[in-house]
Amino acid sequence: MLVKIEDSDETVIKDYQTLSDVEYDEGSSNHVIFQAEPKQSRWNHIVDLDSFFTRAYSYHQNHGFLCMLLQEIFELNQFAFIVALSAYLAHGVNYEKLFHRGATKTTMNEVILPLSECIGNFIWITWILLLIAMAVFALKFIRGVYQIIQFWDIKQFYNIALGIRDKEVDTITWNEVQARIKVAQLQHRMCVDKRELTELDIYHRILRQKNYIIALANKRLLPPRIDIPLVGEEVYWTKTLCYNMQWLLFWSPWSPFENRFNLREEYKQVSLRQELATQLGRHVLYLAFVNLIFAPLILLWQILYAFFYYADLFRRDPAKVGLRNWSLYALLYLRHFNELDHEVADRLTKAHKAATRYVAAFSSPLTTLIASHVSFISGSIMAVFIALTLYDEDVLSVEHVITLISGLGVIVAICRAMQPDENASWNTESLLSAVVLHTHYLPADWQGHAHTKRIRKKFEQLFQYRVVGLVEELLSPIVTPYILWRCIYPKSLDIIDFFRNFTVTVVGVGDVCSFAQMDIKRHGHPDWHNEQEASDANQYSQAEDGKVELSLVHFKMTNPMWVPPLSAMEFVSDVEQYNVSNSMLNFPAGKSAPMQRESRRLVRLSDSVLSPSGFTNQQLRYTIYDSVGQSVMYLHGVNKNKSSVADEDTEQQD
Question: In which domain, by residue range, is 597 found?
């Protein structure tokens, strides 16, 4: 507190001394003014910046407070509706009347029982399930209220600290929001450990846990791989297993992290690795046992939710069930370090059409012939029934006619989805190159073998049928306990070593995965660098598939104002210079002609928009990013990789 004595000479006391020690003229008119310090901002020194920045990102991606409020309300309503509807279908419908085949017409009132009669039909199992459902609903309600309170604070942060009104949330980009957060840090000091925040600091806060999961996948500790008889090795990664691993490693009271941003000290000591591995293994077994106990309830919920969610989709467009989509494993394997959800979704959306064309090139002629024949027979029968119905609508009153027409329609739609496009390209190398243009990852043993069954099978693990993903999720409550026991438990020591060896402390951020620092000297792959600039990484510490290099290029292109370390800046500069040089026009021999044409087109785009001062806007940056990503892939990856798979040369095209 500042004490000021005002008189004719206006003497200011700068030291905290008592008033009795101050000498002043008694004849003058004196008075004492107490001037309070400025009030601190409500966002000063936020303890949990991880949660705060994550909510700020979710607020932007979910289109503001009103949409998030309605989403929470609708999720609660959806849960209650599924439970109530399931209970009513089990005990409140007179199925004898509904399926009565008498001559009299059945009314709705005869089929649907009153609520009191429905409740009277409940059995003890129903009451137990309803009590469990009400307990879950209460927890979801409490969580929803807490989330709304937290997001109301984020709304105030956007409105006041960032100067973004509610109606502007949909029109402003995340990069612009991030730039305003950096400015707000200077005024509000949200992080007190450092004055200025960088883009990487914000990404570290939002993606701390996801970066660890991505690194675990890159080092093949996750996801589990299981050998299935007559099928071979399959990658198993579902939402249920992902949630269990996150709870085990980050959220549980015995996780390696003492809070959201600090690894426990004992996990940093090599002398305790065996003891910690034993503890982690014991917790994995406990978690597997809990999953086994609740498996019937979770399985029941999965079936009910899938039925109500997919029933309308299957009725409207059955062919969509047979379409392919990127698997959860693809979202993990193809994701760069420090890549936000909307960024990876944008890349994979762009790659979807090319991936569909690549997989379609493997369509079996035998399967195509069978699907075409079945489609013709089913379509012909359906056409006859439709023609009869147009002539006389009483045909629909014949038993099972509507069911037959609907079933034939589903068969026709599925068979047509199995038939390849007549105008599709059959050059698998060029098709796979078009996919890599957006996914950016091409294992060395895939190059030159895009036409083989082995590569197709590996690619289908990334780009699977939607119905396969649905079946995996339905079976996950049963399979997850086994996976935890047989696959995760034996890797307890490797996981402990991973957290000790690949965790670094960053000032103002806390403990983060060292791979997320994108240090190409420590984690770079030697095949991606010249001999003069080779990384110091060994096989254990290096990131596979050039993930650190590609992540570095991606992050720099997405955040052009970010200033990386000198070694990283030199690597990015080399890639940019190569991208706009004439060397791309002289593409290495042996690459497909479509790939050369696409690369030349991207170079021309880069030449037209690249300037010494950087990139002008988000759209142009992403255009250059696609080109740079492809350049880096072939310049530092495939073109320099010396490995070969000689025994695959004799594989036959499917």
Answer: 518-645
